[in-house]
Write a structure and sequence with these properties.
Blueprint (H helix, E strand, L loop, with lengths): L1 E9 L5 H17 L4 E9 L2 E8 L2 H10 L8 E10 L5
Antiparallel strand pairs: 1-3, 1-4, 2-3
Length: 90
């Protein structure tokens, strides 16, 4: 398994609610339909967001990571996207 780790910044505190709405209504449903999707977790601390989305293979994770920039709403800045091997889970 491989993970796509995504780091974002919500542009302002006033944008948090609309960003979360877009995340829940558009981003998560879209990502969960991606080939090889296993599970995903999206987190927020203040205006800093981080997601770890698990895929069955490196190829699926790499393909999904390439689509991330097009899913980020205007209220959010994409800081980093990387693919990592999952070496353990519980």
């Amino acid at each position: 398994m491989h993970a796509v780790v995504v780091k974002v910044t919500v542009n302002s505190p006033e944008d948090i609610e609309s960003s979360l709405t877009t995340l829940r209504e558009e981003v998560v449903p879209g990502v969960s339909q991606a080939p090889g999707f296993v599970t995903g977790h999206w987190t927020l601390k203040d205006t800093s967001g981080m997601a770890m989305i698990i895929f069955e293979s490196e190829d699926a994770a790499t393909a999904a990571s390439g689509r991330i920039p097009s899913t980020v709403p205007d209220t959010v800045t994409l800081d980093d996207v990387e693919v990592r091997e999952v070496v353990a889970h519980a």
